[in-house]
Amino acid sequence: MPHYITQPAGRAGGDFRIPGDKSISHRALMLGSIAEGTTEVRGFLESEDCLATMKAMRTMGVRIEQFAPGALRVYGVGLRGLRQPGRALDLGNSGTAMRLMTGLLSGQTFDSELIGDASLMKRPMERVAAPLRLMGARIDTDQGRPPVRIGGAAALQGIRYTLPVASAQVKSAILLAGLYAQGATMLIEPGITRDHTERMLQSFGCPVQAAHGEVHMTPVERLVARSLEVPGDFSSAAFFMVAGSIAAGNGLTLRGVGVNPTRTGLLDILALMGADLRLINHRSAGAEPVADIEVRPSRLQGIHVPEHLVPLAIDEFPALFIAAACAQGETRVTGAEELRVKESDRIAVMAEGLTALGVSCEVLPDGIRIQGRPAEAPAGEAVFAGGTIDSHGDHRIAMAFAVASLRANAAIRIDDVANVATSFPDFPAIATAAGLHLRAVP
Ligand SMILES: O=C(O)C1=C[C@@H](OP(=O)(O)O)[C@@H](O)[C@H](O)C1
Ligand SMILES: C=C(OP(=O)(O)O)C(=O)O
């Protein structure tokens, strides 16, 4: 089974471009496919999750050309131009693809079925199916899990809906179905979540207003194709923000990173912990803000992570837990039960790995307490013992423990790492260039 062997490194440094954003790449394919005209996408993330979405759109008759690395032409077929797939659409490991596609397919005239890998087949789908049914969609799940079967030709109505969980996937699924509904759709969010769908819909000509935790969308006759530049993925950059903070060295510069404020909770959390992070060269990529991020080594302090920052940093907790182990004192995370329904139960799996490397932690129902270094421990000393980590097939767990090798005193073996390719195929190469001693064994 593919695994990583890491050796203690201690120092990190360098200047890197961060590959394209996964969330935005999925959305560019979906909206480009149902727009009228040709959408040119640059900076597209060629990862397995996004390629699963690409394959699904092609199966439904959309022509998509990859004309250079990370550059696509999506020949939109219009809102009503998708064709019935001849088989179940396999969305691999991608929760985003499955949930957003459930919304999109609810508005089609044909029946469809969505499946995925072993991890995705265990993830909750009623969170999207239930509100979509309220709109008139016909959706079956297997006791709340995939396969998701969607009946065609449902007459959808816009809804006013309060989301029970802070979830951009649920919000986006409803907005995509809302494109096919009679009347407006209005959503109330319990916490701020990433707003890439709203921004992209707006730039494709569909009016979306968002303010004070409410999103309002009025369906349009057509979406108009629009060229897009995908910013670097903040969630991929996160591993290097932590690496640059916990390792010795001159620090790291991460170029072209998407800094949409609905994604950058980790910057606030690390700042509260005392990290030395600086955003420079602010610019924009279409509807999304972009910057370069400079990170320098720092002495981190444990904190209680403010709960309102949790949805803004939802994918960054595996990396953050590594930073917490290197901080002085205790770090406590609460209000983060959503971590239990990601590609793995990220609270349990991170706790298992931290414990295996000699870090003491206590699992809470909705979070974790992690004991960092005692006050008297010198900065920069090893925090992690060597050992073996089971990533449970979760890309972010694998990458987080690879970063831990910067403060380890012996080799760490990380098992079941193939899924790193779902979000960050270039991780081993960039990590090695940044100073990690990482060997990827196929
Ligand atoms: O909308 C998206 O692109 C995503 C939303 C988040 O999931 P939830 O909506 O389940 O919080 C996040 O964890 C996922 O990686 C990507
Ligand atoms: C949770 C994640 O992705 P998804 O829900 O799309 O599988 C992630 O990338 O951390």
Describe the structure.
The protein is α/β, with parallel strands linked by helices. The protein folds into two domains: 3-20 and 234-441, Alpha-beta prism (UDP-n-acetylglucosamine1-carboxyvinyl-transferase, Chain); 22-218, UDP-n-acetylglucosamine1-carboxyvinyl-transferase, Chain, CATH 3.65.10. It has 13 helices and 24 strands. The protein has helices at 22-34, 48-59, 95-106, 126-134, 168-178, 196-203, 234-246, 265-272, 317-326, 346-356, 395-404, 420-423, 427-433, and strands at 3-7, 11-17, 35-42, 63-68, 71-77, 89-90, 112-115, 138-142, 145-151, 160-162, 185-188, 208-211, 214-217, 223-224, 228-229, 248-258, 276-285, 288-296, 330-333, 361-364, 367-371, 387-390, 412-415, 437-441. The strands form six sheets. Strands 3, 4, 5, 14 and 15 form a five-stranded mixed sheet that branches. The chain has a four-stranded mixed sheet with strand order 22-23-1-24. Strand 22, helix 11 and strand 23 form a beta-alpha-beta unit. The protein binds shikimate-3-phosphate and phosphoenolpyruvate. The site of phosphoenolpyruvate has 8 residues, from helix 3. Phosphoenolpyruvate binds next to helix 3.
Short description:
This protein is an alpha/beta fold. The protein is 29% helix and 29% strand.
Please tag this protein with its features:
2 domains; five-stranded mixed sheet; binds shikimate-3-phosphate; single chain; 442 residues; four-stranded mixed sheet; UDP-n-acetylglucosamine1-carboxyvinyl-transferase, Chain; globular; binds phosphoenolpyruvate; alpha/beta
